[in-house]
Amino acid sequence: MWEYTDKVREHFINPRNVGEIPDADCVGEVGSLACGDALKLFLKLDENERIVDAKFQTFGCASAIASSSALTEMIKGKTVDEALEVSNQDIAQFLGGLPKEKMHCSVMGKEALEAAVANLRGLPVAPHEEGEVVCECFGVTDQTIRRAIAENNLSTVEEITDFTKAGGGCGKCLDRLADILAEAKGQKKELKPLEIAPAKPAGLTNMQRMKLVSKTIEEEIAPSLQKDGGDIELVDVDGKTVLVKLRGACSSCKSSQVTLKQFVEKRLREAVEQDITVQEVR
Amino acid sequence: MAVIYLDNNATTRVDPAVLEEMLPFFSERYGNPSSMHAFGGSVGRELSQARERVAQALGCAPGEVVFNACGTEGDNTAIRSALASQPEKRHIITTRVEHPAVLNVVKHLERKGYEATYLGVDHEGMLDLDELRDSLRPDTALVSVMWANNETGAVFPIHEIARIAKERGALVHTDAVQVLGKIPIDLKTLPVDFLAVSGHKVHAPKGVGALFVRKGVQYRPFMLGGHQEHGRRAGTENTTGIIGLGKACEIAQANIAHENSAVKALRDRLEAGLLAAIPEARVNGSTASRLPNTTNISFQYVEGEAILLMMDAFGICASSGSACTSGSLEPSHVLRAMGVPFTYAHGSIRFSLSRFNTDAEVDTVLAELPKIIARLREISPFKRQEGEAPACTC
């Protein structure tokens, strides 16, 4: 019998946030019936991409259900970006730990969140689902394995199986897992954590666009310019044209147009919409 | 909270009558049965009586019974002995649904250069005897086929299997751990060479078992050391365990009719009640040729470990063939060999009853389990919507 913590048992017997959100802003689905565990995560966001509600449906064992319940408790109230900071170790830690063989349940929670965010941002698949399928039994790719190794500092093939399920079926891929492990350990610095593309919701309303532009300028662009003695002020948002005033050192800088195009406009295009243009108001 | 123990294929409670018979051998009658003094010698006589009781239950001669520690030891010993005594033969036949006590030995021997054939089973968990006939070779040293499957209760036609194998000159071993006390065993008419049984499956304690070795069959001991068991299994005998096994065999033999009437009726009521109360549920394995105490039922859309843990809250003990219970990531090798779809295999629960189970216990399971399945299906993303066809009917 597995040694589950009281908190795992509690979240299994009385899971929080079970169910669907019919008008969810995004849904993330991972796993399958064949694999033995699956999680469907529903998120409801406010206009600031803050998670105001999270619900789940899980097919799986006690730790899968408890991990799902824990995840929803942990991310409610966070912005999407803040939620993405929650790691699978955080989920396990929230539950007071999971048996090592069950760590893949916490990984499933993390992956469902990423799938939901990818869904929000119009991405077809989570980036780690791309790559070479190494474990055919459970459809695990090399990217998922490399990421699990890097994020959880895995050092054995057994640990890879515990965290990703790869190698837990027919076992044909065990040698390949050992190769990936050796390779990953040798090239650890080159491993990049998964980056979910920043919010680029399609079809923003004027209000949503204004809020997102304002937020990006206030939280990212202005502080960056202020470091160099400059500043920026949002004047107006007219359709997809953003009107700004440069302040401080930026107002007299010879390169101000470069700053506007190469920094301000580029960052707003990444964060808000691809076809935003920025104009300076004097 | 009272325990409702429906996991008797895993282990059984020690029968109070067995315990009572064993108790003196833990205390005042502690002599070594191999000793020359009367104090030990009297224990030796009790050991002989236990051997006679076991032989009686197996339908063999007392001299054909070798006491050991468990079914696993019996299986290991039989397989290794059969190969060691026929060094010119390098082929073994077994099935894909054996207990690991056989499967892992055969896999180990494959790594040592032996060839193995694993017979498949159909969707009911039954063997194709033509496949057995086709697999037999002049160099087949051993056919090792379990008599009854521990997970589904499927009973193999061991008499026919043994006859086919013997005709082609192979030795035959059967793991009868699940059979003792449930199906009459008569080794006078069953032409196997080795047969393994285990005490704790038949209301004797853990740590004792017996291997039948047919008189005249060449034998190579697995355990080397002293002269115990006529040199066939070294090591001071587990006297108390053997006394318990002897008594348990006597009781089991007297209760076979009860197993096949009262226990079977209880099992059938449990099975029928669950199937009636829970949609998308099905029995895994043959219902025509099955142990009287076992039912293996799958509940679609939910996972076995979750079911077990929720049942545990009511003191209900059973087993699951789901992946999550085992540390493995794939469901039971038996259910997979039978082609049970994943949709069902992950949600499989084995109930195995004994003569100690009651109608009231079955009533509790019938009252609680449908609610548990419904609760887990509420959580599951795969539950069937009203009006939808089942996800899988195969």
UniProtKB/TrEMBL annotation, chain A:
Top-rank taxon: Bacteria
Signal peptide: none
Gene3D superfamilies, per database record: 3.90.1010.10, BFD-like [2Fe-2S]-binding domain, Fe-S cluster assembly (FSCA)
Binding-site list for Fe cation: C35, C61, C105
Binding site for [2Fe-2S] cluster: C135, C137, C170, C173
GO MF annotation terms: 2 iron, 2 sulfur cluster binding; iron ion binding
GO biological process entries: iron-sulfur cluster assembly
The protein's required cofactors: Fe cation; [2Fe-2S] cluster
Keyword Glycoprotein annotated: no
General function of this protein: May be involved in the formation or repair of [Fe-S] clusters present in iron-sulfur proteins.
The name this protein goes by in its record: Nitrogen fixation protein NifU
UniProtKB/TrEMBL annotation, chain B:
Biological process according to GO: amino acid metabolic process
Domain of life: Bacteria
Cofactor: pyridoxal 5'-phosphate
Catalysed conversion reaction: (sulfur carrier)-H + L-cysteine = (sulfur carrier)-SH + L-alanine
InterPro entries, alphabetized: Aminotrans_V_dom, Aminotrans_V_PyrdxlP_BS, Cys_deSase_NifS_bac/arc, Cysteine_dSase, PyrdxlP-dep_Trfase, PyrdxlP-dep_Trfase_major, PyrdxlP-dep_Trfase_small
A GO term for molecular function: iron-sulfur cluster binding
Quaternary structure, from the entry: Homodimer.
Protein name: Cysteine desulfurase
UniProt organism field: Fundidesulfovibrio magnetotacticus
